[in-house]
Amino acid sequence: MHIADTYNKKDTVLSFEIFPPKKDSALKNIDATLEVLCKENPDFISVTFGAGGSSNNNKTIEIANKIKNQYGIEPMVHLTCLSYEKSEIDDFYKVLKENNIENILALRGDRNPNVEEKNDFKHASDLTSYIKAKGDFCVAGACYPEVHPEADNSIVDIRNLKKKVDAGADFLVSQLFFNNDEFYRFQEKCAIAGIDVPISAGIMPVTNKSQIERMVTMCGATLPDRFKKIMEKYQDNQEALFDAGLAYAISQVIDLIASGVDGIHLYTMNNPVVARRICDGIKNLI
Ligand code: FAD
Fold it and tell me: How far apart are CA 195 and CA 163, in angstroms?
């Protein structure tokens, strides 16, 4: 099933994101994770993909296959292109077809000095048009409410996002953010630019201290005072931080749903308890 059709049928599409565990031993635990996640009956589950040369990428397809055939939930496979030639993307395409996978999140991938870049695909929009030309996949794209770090400014970034949509992206999934106002301003800019495909809002519940540190150094998302206050107060109390981080994420989701967001995409960090608690908190809203 093409996920884009779900946005036509439902007020708010609910999705989860998981990543393939690095260790083979941890791969066994993915079943326990999927069991809990799939009971929440999300509209789709997306599985991340290494930026290049990663042997873990076969696991992405293996897990997506499980999600579809064992649990009956629609999977979306992330696919990066910066370090691949067309022939290699053709090989992935074949495997995806063999596994009955119909939904791809087409990504450029982060630049990494340890991974060689190839010349066939420079931007996610190149991969989007390449896959769309093959005809039978639903293709999503990533978007950045607080601007992609390499873009000079939001106008340039939105213009580039429009190119991705014109290349055939059927819907968009956003980078995580903690300030809903940033997302609403982004939605407005998209509307002005003529970007009219559904946009799912990326929400990451921050429930442990190492996540806080990563957020601050890596993702560039604005941290509102309300969020900072909670993190400062509870960062050394694991249980309290877990509750407070979940409550913050739930309040974000409730506000987004009340504001008519097209979809909520939960970055689960493979933690099924987090996903279950969020779903409990919004079960009568979606
Ligand atoms: P692009 O859309 O190509 O954008 C990258 C930069 O190029 C932007 O600054 C943009 O403004 C500019 N640009 C875009 N198109 C053009 C154009 N036509 N002309 C000129 N400039 C242009 N990474 C992984 O490695 N694996 C994953 O599984 C993964 N999953 C992700 C899921 C989501 C929801 C998100 C938001 C990100 C994910 N990423 C993942 C990270 C992503 O690969 C990086 O953010 C990467 O730096 C950009 O990828 P993109 O597809 O958005 O690139």
Answer: 9
CATH numbers and ranges of domains, the chain: 3-282 (3.20.20.220)
DSSP one-letter code for 79: E
Which pLDDT score, from 0 to 100, does residue 210 have? 84
- Answer whether 109 contacts ligand 1 (Cβ < 6 A): yes
Find the angle CA(252)-CA(187)-CA(111) to the nearest 5 degrees. 90
Q: Tokens 């998302």 — which residue?
A: 221
What whole-number distance in Å separates Cα of residue 198 and Cα of residue 170?
8
Measured in Å, residue 66 CA sits from the centre of ligand 1 at 26
Residue nearest to atom 22 of ligand 1 (CA): 160
Cross-strand partners of 120: none
Under a CB-based contact definition with an 8 Å cutoff, are residues 116 and 148 in contact? no
Neighbouring CB atoms inside 10 A of 15's CB total: 23
CB contact at 8 A, 144 and 172: no
User: pTM for the full model?
Assistant: 0.97
* Sequence letter at residue 42: P
Of 146, 253, 136, whose CA–CA distance to 205 is shortest? 253
pLDDT at 151: 96
* Across 226-234, average pLDDT: 93
